[in-house]
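S1.2 Input.
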Amino acid sequence: MRLTEKGRPLVRFRLDGADCQALSGDTVLTAVLVSAPAVRQSEFGPEKRAGFCLMGACQDCWLWYEDGGRLRACSTLIADGMQLRTAPPEGWR
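S1.3 Output.
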């Protein structure tokens, strides 16, 4: 749950095909964690990941755009219309 805020417009985005919303000025990490219990699953095991350092150093918060590009969720601002994935697209590399 997030505290009620006034004065920041809603931003709409998609995460793994689901419609989500955030507040303008949120990082992608904040937007995702308000909408989902984790950012992604570890590539090394079944553990869920939710970011760690919150400053782009640990690389724990990588997400993918629908087109296959990667982004660090902790240091990227959410933008209206973003289409994000918690797992890499098929054939990614």
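S1.4 Remarks. The first helix runs from residue 28 to 35.
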